[in-house]
Structures are given as C-alpha cells and as structure tokens.
Design goal:
The chain is an alpha/beta fold. The protein has 2 domains: 152 residues, Ribosomal Protein L4, Chain: A; 50 residues, no CATH class. Helix content is 34%, strand content 15%.
Length: 206
Amino acid sequence: MANVKVYNMEGKEVGNIDLNDAVFGIEVNENLVHQAVVKQLADNRQGTQKAKTRSEVSGGGRKPWRQKGTGHARQGSTRSPQWVHGGVVFAPTPRDYSFKMNKKERRIALKSALTSRVQDEKFIVLDELKLDEIKTRKFKEVLDNLKVNKALVILDSLDKTVIMSARNIEGVKTAQINTINTYDIMKYSTVIATKAAVAKIEEVYA
C-alpha cells in the first residue's frame, strides 16, 4: 500500500495517508492508457471538414472539346480533378472520429494513470484547499508553496472560489471526481488532490 505525505496550503507536511492499492497501486497498463488518450483526442475532433468532389462542383456540364482530332488529351468535363476549379479526389467529408472503449478498460486506464503519478512521486495530497475569496494570486501562492507549476487539481466538490481563482493560471486545470480522465492526468506533470477527493476516488474506482 502506497504511503504519501499530506501537505497544507503553506506547503508544510502535516501527516501521511495510505492509498488504496486497488486504485493507486495497480500494474500500469501502458497500452490502455495510450488507447484512452487517443480516444479522448478522437472524441474531441469536430470532424466537420468538407471539400467538393467532381460531382458536387458547379459547372462542367459540356464536354470541353470533341474526343478526337484536336491534338489535346481527351476530356469529359472542366470540373475533373486535374482542371483548375475542378473537384477534389477523395475529398474529406464530415465524419465521426470517435470509437468505443469498454468501461472496464477505461477504468483500468484511469487507475494506471493515477498509479504512474504516484510511482513518479508526482501525486500531492492536500489536507484541504479553501480560499476566502476569488484571488488568482492566492491560488498561485499555494502552488508556489508546493513548488508546482503545471498541475491538475482534483476537488472533492464544486468549489467555485477555487475554480475561479485557478482558471487564469496557465498550465493549471481544476476537476471534480466525475470529470477526471486519463488524458488530463497524463497531460499535467503533477496531480494535486485533497484528502476528501482521494477518499471519493477510492470509493468510486476501488
């Protein structure tokens, strides 16, 4: 069972916490982690690109010249792909890039990502994260106390004061238990979570 230090907002060590091996101590499955990251990137693609094929370009209804005897190569339409203003060969059309990944595989990928952050000592637990007012400077002070620049901050509940204070800091993202995903965990170099958030993660994913 992994044991990590618990810090307060001043960056001082205030205790330790044992992490559940069913979530934070599994065998890392790099293949599923990669698959989950690719899936999220694919799901985020709009897929709205479009170009016209020769059948969709306007004009070109008449054969530009007779078949034989002109010295030119035979042509059937001025909207063929080789002509200026012609259609596009194998033109892209709107499509859905998303693909299916089993729920069990997604859970293993998420737990693998969390485990890798614990193994790399990039998982920081805070006893609590509370701000009296919406102040970006105060949230930045917390990060500086923890010696962290780029981080995913996992909250146990919807705390608008913390979320609003963090949203303008480059390289920082806040998330709740129901919104964390493999991509964000791997994208940000450090994961910061409150003790309450860790307890909820273990409750949901153990």
